[in-house]
Specification:
- Helix content is 34%, strand content 18%.
- The chain is built from 19 helices and 20 strands.
- The chain has helices at residues 72-75, 80-83, 104-113, 115-118, 131-139, 141-144, 157-165, 174-189, 209-221, 237-251, 271-283, 315-323, 325-338, 371-378, 382-392, 406-413, 434-449, 455-462, 464-469, and strands spanning 3-10, 19-26, 29-35, 49-52, 57-60, 62-64, 87-92, 150-156, 194-198, 225-229, 255-257, 288-292, 298-301, 353-357, 398-401, 418-420, 486-489, 512-515, 518-522, 525-526.
- The longest helix is centred in the middle third of the chain and has 16 residues, at 174-189.
């Protein structure tokens, strides 16, 4: 054996009872499991390493079903934000906006559109234009050594639409739809696991259901899944969920609901309504899963709050509208009175919008304060403050939106098709703590402290369930022959270190993390190992 882990409490990912065992690892895979009391021989002595787990819990590596590490994996070889949590695989390309497939024009536009999520990319060598090229870039990153953790990719529908017809708010022509279908088919054949949408983000939100269904048919034909950030998490949230369920049924495409929350005052206590909708669809044969993060606030960009009509034409057009007093007043009216579709149909409450990051150095003092607080300090209306911030930061500001409900969070995470996703945006001085804390938060607060789920159930939500959605035949369980993507943690002490005040603090109680049998975290410290690679769709 290359490695023998002795005396571990194995939580194998099935949701079943844990057991004591020794684990033997050879050539990156679990080669032997010797349970306490077994009469057969224990794993042979290790050639390289023997680790006495001393009763630490040993689980499959955690799978982050909703990550925004598209450039972070290329930028930061350590990527400790995720490695320290026990994450061994991230699903990127989320919310309908990412960096492949593109041409030169589309790449320049998408870089500007999601600067708040990933930075402007000025430190990245964008050598690729296709999905396959991007996945190859992950495999050969950092001098050819690879990336910190594994990554799977979703084709971003908004980027595909941007590529085929720009930022126009109109139906696609038959030729444009054929072009989009070709781009999706090409990306799937090159290894993407599915397609994402951001249906409150421009330009993806301009697609109607027939257009989305046509693309989902291509995804289904390649055995992928559809992952929508749907049209509303506020007013009309249930209708938006139902729309996605019906769309997936029409296209015969598996459905994974991104960050499936019920937010804003209109949805307080309404998680049971969502779960009833899903249970009915599941009972009628629908293939549905979902992910959530274990926090109440959301996180996005400030520009995402604007009405969709203000986004037509792309970033330069948005800035021009903001600079025009008459158009800016229309935007304010939609935000504060009507309830813009960018803000999920709910009139915006400026005291819930906290600035978490600003690109312009002169705006650093805004971070950590709400728009209402900033406006009060200046003696002006909140929209005046927000408008100035959008213009001065060239749409790059990120926000925390404090609109969630704890009872909804707990109810949804109990559901049998639930998985974990951080939705972690790593940009900004004060990012959402979920980027650094989602998985220990599940294990520590919600399993150990609150008992919302048992520890064994929690691990299943974070491992085998997402692996099944991704159709990964050798990940997500502690079984012989499976890849040795493993996490060792202390169930009594594991906890998220990150807080809203100190969001980049690393977790405690997760001393060891392995990918392909190689330590990426050992004794609580990041090693120099780069064992991550692009995980391509299983044919």
């Amino acid at each position: 054996m290359d490695l023998v882990i002795q005396d571990a409490r194995v939580i194998d990912g099935t949701g079943g009872a844990s057991y004591r065992a020794d684990i033997g690892v050879q050539e990156g895979r679990i080669a032997a499991i010797h349970r306490e009391g077994d009469t057969g021989p224990r794993p042979a002595a290790a050639r390289r390493h023997t680790l006495d787990a001393q009763g630490l819990a040993l689980a499959p590596g955690f799978i982050d079903m909703h990550a925004h590490s598209d450039l972070a994996l290329l930028r930061d070889p350590e990527h400790t934000a995720k490695a320290a949590q026990g994450v061994t695989l991230e699903v990127i390309g989320q919310d309908g906006l990412s960096y492949a497939p593109v041409d030169d024009r589309t790449l320049a536009q998408v870089r500007r559109a999601i600067t708040g999520w990933n930075g402007d990319g000025s430190d990245i060598d964008f050598t690729w234009r296709t999905v396959g090229g991007y996945l190859d870039a992950l495999d050969t990153a950092h001098g050819g050594h690879g990336i910190a953790v594994n990554a799977a990719y979703l084709i971003p529908q908004g980027t595909v639409r941007m590529y085929a017809l720009g930022w126009d708010d109109r139906p696609a022509t038959p030729a444009e739809l054929d072009r989009m279908r070709h781009l999706v088919a090409e990306g799937m054949s090159e290894g993407a696991v599915g397609m994402s949408s951001g249906l409150t983000y421009t330009p993806g939100m301009y697609a109607d259901d027939s257009e989305l269904a046509a693309l989902c048919e291509v995804v289904a034909a390649h055995k992928g899944y559809y992952c929508p950030h749907h049209r509303s998490y506020g007013a009309g949230a249930l209708q938006a969920y139902e729309e996605m369920v019906n769309l997936a049924r029409t296209a015969r495409c598996p459905l994974h609901l991104a960050h499936a929350t019920m937010n804003f005052g209109v949805n307080k206590g309404r998680a049971p309504d969502l779960l009833a909708l899903l249970d009915d669809a599941l009972a009628h044969g629908a293939d549905i899963t979902l992910d959530t993060y274990p926090y109440t606030p959301g996180c996005t960009t400030l520009v995402a709050m604007l009405p969709s009509w203000a986004g037509e034409g792309g970033p330069d057009a948005i800035l021009a509208r903001l600079r025009d007093d008459g158009t800016a007043e229309r935007i304010r009216h939609h935000l504060e009175v009507v309830g813009s579709d960018g803000c999920h149909g709910v009139p915006i409450e400026w005291d819930t919008i906290e600035i978490s990051g600003a690109l312009a150095p002169g705006l650093a003092s805004c971070v950590g304060r709400t728009i209402q607080e900033l406006a009060d300090a200046r003696g002006e209306a909140p929209w005046t403050t927000a408008r100035r911030l959008l213009i001065d930061d060239r749409l790059g500001s990120t926000i925390l939106q404090h609109v969630g409900h704890e009872e909804n969070v707990r109810a949804i995470m109990r559901h049998r098709v639930h998985t974990g996703g951080s939705d972690g945006i790593l940009q900004g001085v004060k990012p959402h703590p979920r980027a650094y804390g989602t998985f220990p938060q599940y294990l520590g607060r919600y399993a150990r402290e609150l008992g919302v789920l048992s520890l064994e159930e929690t691990v299943a939500h974070l491992t085998s369930r997402p692996a099944a959605r991704l159709r990964l035949p050798d990940r997500g369980l502690v079984r012989e022959g499976y890849r040795a993507d493993l996490v060792l943690f202390d169930p009594e002490t594991v906890a998220a270190g990150s807080t809203f005040e100190a969001p980049r603090t690393l977790p405690v109680g997760i001393p060891h993390v392995l990918i392909d049998g190689r330590f990426v975290m050992r004794d609580g410290r990041r090693t120099d190992t780069l064992a991550g690679r692009a995980v391509r769709r299983t044919p």
